[in-house]
Every structure is written in structure tokens, then in C-alpha cells.
Design brief:
The structure is a homodimer. Chain A is mainly alpha-helical. Helix content of chain A is about 50%, strand content about 5%. Chain A is built from 6 helices and 2 strands, in the order αααββααα. The structure holds a DNA duplex.
Chain lengths: ~140, ~140
DNA sequence: CACCTTTAGGACCTGTTTTGTCTTTTATAA
DNA sequence: TTATAAAAGACAAAACAGGTCCTAAAGGTG
């Protein structure tokens, strides 16, 4: 349960790689893919997504590539994870719209809410800058 | 991300139903399935699993059925969830055995460990007895 | 302009997991 | 010995994961 998919794992690896580049330097998707050992076309999709959300900037043509859309210190792990995995929702019933019929007479929902907010809190407290720092 | 499957949802509904029975009373799988609006054969598998783990006791033949294997106050939500969903592991890399290559130079792992222990802590702190209490 | 580079976008594909159903077997009580 | 109930296993549709491949579009460069 609660497992990160490969996509999520790849997304994190990729953006950490970007964060480690010297500021202003552009990285090619082929380069990132090779360095992080992720299938290139798959990683490309992930980064397209990042670009749409403004997490990274993309540039086409010769000399193009990707760079962070903001300082790594202002990108949280939560943003990265949710960008590719969708919102952190431990139970469908927590989603808006047609709540489940059991909502009223069910005490489990508050528990899932707690799980949700705790996980969000943790992931929110971690920035890509921290993750990109070299471990000695 | 982090979503409980239907199986997990069904499992919780089912065991809560059992916990609400008057002590010593047996409940048929057909009865539980109908009350909780879960496909009967699917719920049967879930309860077979519960029985193996001792969460419930099962009895065959006339007058048979299911009852809790322990007082509801001594069954945690964690046990129920893990019984059907497997261990709570936010990232494959947290699993034993062949750790991922990136383990050494990756700062993300401690974060997943924190997520894991927080979620486990929350689910562990909730008993089926609490969940089964009637909400007014 | 023509051409090369690089990302964007869409179609497609394969294997696994989810979410079941159906049938047969085994245990038990009356 | 028969009716009742759970146990067990085989099967299957649908959704999802984890990709691949091909074409389009945008941006430099000679």
C-alpha cells in the first residue's frame, strides 16, 4: 500500500539531477535520462508535465533543454510527487463530489484525513534543494 | 497516490460490521456482504485471509459464520489494512534485500521512512472498536 | 531558405494488478 | 445423509503501469 510508482521515482531523480546543474546551465533530456538511468521517452513525458506546471522551463532547438523553473529551494517534494502521481488521497472517499454513502456513519474518514495531512506535511517540508545536496 | 484499494475499503467495512455484532453472535458472509454492499465472493476471499491471520474466527456448516478473533479493542486499523494490502511501503527502495543503487547518494530515502512510520503510527493508534462505535 | 536539433504530443502496446465471477471441495450440524 | 456454510482454485474483464514509436512544432545555424 501507499507505494510510489516508478514514474514518481523517476520524476524525483530527474529533478534532483536538474537541481545539481550549475545555475543557468541547460540539461538535455537525453543527458538526464542517461545519468538517472531512466528510459528517455518516458522521462520526456514526465518533464513535459513539469514544464506545464512551471516546475521546469523547457527550450527547443539547438542549445535547448531543461532547467529549473524556480530555485530548487522553492520546489517541494510534494509538488514533484503530486505533479506526476496526482493528489495524495489515501481513500477515494476523501475526494470531493459524490462522497460515499458510508460517509455519515463511518468513523474511518477522519483517520484518512489525518494520514493525508501528515503525509502532505512531511513532503511539503522537504525541498529539492535539500535533496540535491551532495551526501558525503 | 497512496490510495487504498477497494479491497482495503471492503475489508474495513466488513470487520467493522463484525465488531458491531453482539458478542458471540455469528455473522454469515452473505449477511455481511449485503449489509456492507460488497460483492459476496470478493468479501469471502478477504475474510478467508482474515481467518488465516487470526483476525476473525470462521466456522463452517449450519450455524456457522464469522466472528472476531479478538476483542475489537485489540485489533488495529493497521492490522486490517496490512492484512489485505500488504505492508505500508511508500517506496520500493525501503524494502529489504537488494536496495536500489541510488541508496547511497540519495537523500530521499529518509523522507519515505518518515512517511512510512507516521502512517503506521496513525493506523496503529486506531482500533476497530473505536471505528465500530455508533456515531450519533 | 533549408536543415539540424530538441522538445511536444499523440497513438499504440504489453504485462501486471484490480476487481471481480464461477465451480468444486471440505467441514459441520441437524 | 442431507442441508448449510466457509475454503479453495480457476478464470476473466477492465484498469493501470510502464513503456515505445512516430510525427509535429519550435528554435537555431549556415
Amino acid at each position: 500500500m501507499m507505494e510510489l510508482t516508478r514514474k514518481g521515482e523517476y520524476a524525483i531523480r530527474g529533478i534532483i539531477y536538474l537541481a545539481r546543474q550549475t545555475p543557468g546551465k541547460m540539461a538535455l533530456i537525453s543527458e538526464i535520462a542517461e545519468a538517472t538511468e531512466v528510459p528517455q521517452t518516458f522521462l520526456a513525458k514526465i518533464f513535459q508535465n513539469f514544464a506545464k506546471l512551471g516546475l521546469v522551463n523547457s527550450y527547443r532547438g539547438t542549445g535547448g533543454g531543461f532547467m529549473l523553473g524556480r530555485p530548487a529551494s522553492r520546489i517541494t517534494l510534494r509538488e514533484v510527487v503530486e505533479a506526476v502521481e496526482g493528489p495524495i488521497i489515501p481513500n477515494r472517499c476523501l475526494m470531493g463530489g459524490s462522497a460515499c454513502d458510508f460517509d455519515s456513519h463511518c468513523n474511518v474518514h477522519p483517520v484518512w484525513r489525518r494520514v493525508q495531512s501528515e503525509v502532505v506535511r512531511i513532503l511539503e517540508s522537504v525541498t529539492i534543494e535539500e535533496l540535491a545536496r551532495e551526501t558525503k
